[in-house]
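Researcher: I'd like a structural prediction for the single chain below. Treat it as a standalone chain; there are no partners to consider.
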Amino acid sequence: MHTLILEIDLHIPEATSLKAKRSVVQSLVRRIDDRHGVAAAEVDELDTHQRARLGAAIVGGSPAHLERVADDIDRFIWAEPRVEVLDIGRSWWSSE
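Model: Treating it as a single chain, here is the predicted structure.
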């Protein structure tokens, strides 16, 4: 079993309140979950209205498959017009 963790650091320039930020973040998390079948959540910067850090865990038997899913999530995040991507990091864990 292999696990690929994505850590996605975002700037949300048009968020003038936590409520506005959470609307964007919840939409992104929901769409990542729905489109890619991975666990995603806001994991840091919870009280900062223009910053967000998301985490996503992709689990599977093939590292190549996990890379493809991560690449799809990368493209999805970079194409989102409401956010500026500051960084997307990848960390691997394997039980083998």
